Predict the structure of RHOMBOID-like protein.
Amino acid sequence: MAGGPPSEVQIRVLPSSSRRSGGGGGGVVHPVEVDSPPSRPASAGATPSPIVYKEVKHFKKWMPWLIPAFVVANTVMFIITMYVNDCPKNSVSCIARFLGRFSFQPFKENPLLGPSSSTLQKMGALKVSKVVDKHQAWLLITCIWLHGGVFHLLANMLSLLVIGIRLEQEFGFVRIGLLYIISGLGGSLMSALFIQSNISVGASGALFGLLGGMLSELITNWTIYANKVAAFMTLVVIIVINLAVGILPHVDNFAHIGGFLSGFFLGFVFLIRPHFGWVNQRYAPPGYSPNSVRSKFKMYQCILWLVSLIILIIGFTVGLVMLLRGVDANDHCSWCHYLSCAYEIGSQLNVTCATNGKSGLYNLSNPSDSQIQGLCSQLCN
């Protein structure tokens, strides 16, 4: 019994990243149109074998749960912080006093609608003197779960949902969770090295780490993108705008820069994906021989992975050693203070009345004894 020619199969990877450029397909491998091969004469009654198309899953689509959990955790921590703050008991005046102990500190003390500086320190805000003198290194991590106020919390959590959920869907909770935490640590570390007079809180460093990871993911997985230049330019514009916002007063741009750099190098390590040629070979059906044997990753991907890992290890090691030795990085970089205006807030004076326990935080530079006495009288009356 005569048979037709062997079936031919060709597959194409439509990665999830192509959806960002207008493609579809749900992250699976789809068939490609191929020209029919020349048919050999067949015996009477025999029909030529059709070209076989095969669809196989490759890039798994994850169900995001960790990023929403981070949002819930940050929100719960803010509620607990406001409960501990108890403005009516500890301050002379409060905003939204009808909220009881959840009311906010005065605008002159905290324009973000949040707790006092002393409360944030109790809850684990980053204070460089505590890290250096009291060896409380865990403050580098705890500070990224705290926020200075409602406005601060809303801005960060909305950004986290927009950026983080898409990344977790693409790469899973383990890699994105590590990227978030380590980037937050990197942001706290750089902030502590350059801004040593004020406390620091917020998830901005971790958020910028996700942005940095998106950029390096685009670079290292360059071959699987459809509209490469458009995607690259869009992402760069978003990053530049966000970094420019960090130059505004009262914003800790060093945390943004440290988080971004950490996430950028971590992206080369955590977010690397096999290139198209390997996937085409890996999921080829039986009987189909690819033109050549290809490695899973391209050479440039392996080089970026190794170099980034070395930079991360050296960077975090040197940074931690410098911090624990009490080094002020501004002494070694005369122009770095132009990158952030956070330290230009001024000297903060925390005054507490000994009789009723009420406290207040005031931005005063070199206050006189009469000014301090006046503030004490105001708090104690």
The chain has a mean pLDDT of 79. Strands lie at 11-13, 28-31, 56-57, 348-352, 359-363.
